Each structure stands twice: as structure tokens, then as C-alpha cells.
Automatic annotation (TrEMBL):
CDD domains: Sigma70_r4. Coiled coil: none annotated. This is RNA polymerase sigma-70 factor (ECF subfamily). Residues 14-81, 116-164 form the RNA polymerase sigma-70 region domain. PANTHER family: ECF RNA POLYMERASE SIGMA FACTOR SIGL, RNA POLYMERASE ECF-TYPE SIGMA FACTO. SUPFAM superfamilies: Sigma2 domain of RNA polymerase sigma factors, Sigma3 and sigma4 domains of RNA polymerase sigma factors. The keyword DNA-binding applies. Keywords: DNA-binding, Sigma factor, Transcription, Transcription regulation.
Amino acid sequence: MEGAVEPAAALRQLHEQHGAALLGFAARLTHNPDLARDVVQDVLLRAWRHPEIVASDERAARAWLFTVTRNLVIDRWRSAAHRHETATDVSTLADRTPTGEDATSAVLDRWLIADALRGLSPQHREVVVAASYEGRPLAEIARTLGVPEGTVKSRLHYGLRSLRLLLQEKGVTAP
């Protein structure tokens, strides 16, 4: 998308290049073709509002489009409006359990956190996973890595801080 291209033409080109893939991606995430079309429309509207994305190189624009698609799907799953906007057949109400919705939210949360963990340096990720997810004590982590315990504490501190920033960039806010 090099050169001075009119925003509407650039957006049309972006849709032609990535629209079908975005729709397929959104459909796999939502399991609802109507919702998937709405999400893709919202993504393209956001791209139109951010001409720097439309004008960026194709790879960066594609990555941005897919990230925004994923984040919008996650936001819709978490929103109260999602729970109230879906049409419900009265006969299926007895079959619904909160654990199904909780499980979906938990899966999306794990996916979001795993994606953010990949953004950490290997040293920070290793310590954060060992301490926060495996529940290992700092002294054990230090012995395993062959570094002083103070280094593990420092890596954990800066790793968690970086993880929080990465999650904030993805739209996650603290409760």
C-alpha cells in the first residue's frame, strides 16, 4: 500500500486482501456468521479511523487487523450486552449452565495471557511462568536457573510489570 492512496481506496484494497481471511477467523472465534460479519465490519471501521494502519505495509496492517478482530471478539464475550443480546429459545434455558460461559471466558483469558507471555523476554517469561503458574518458590527457581535469588526477584518484578503493560495494550484493565 505504498504511495499516496486515497483512504477509501486503501480501505477497499485492505478489505479485498484480508476481508475473507478476517471473516473466517472471526467466524471460527464466534461460531456465529452474523456476529463474525459485525466484528469484521467493526474492524474495518477502526482501520478507516486509523489511516496510519491502512497506509502501513501489508504485513503490519494484516497483523493489526487480526489482533483487533481477536480483541473485539474477546470484548464481546466479556460484555454484559453479549449475554443480553443473544436470542434465547425458552426450551433451552434449562440446558444452560454458568460453567459453559465461565469455561469460554477462562479459555479466552488463557489465550490472551499466553499471547502476552510470548511478548516477554525469555528470561522474564521463564521466571513468571515458574513463579506465578507453577507456584515454585523463588529459591527453587534460582537453583534451577543457576542465578542468585535476587536476580529471580528482579526478573519476576520486571516480567510482571511488562506483562501488565502488554495486557493493557491489548485492552485488558485491572478489576
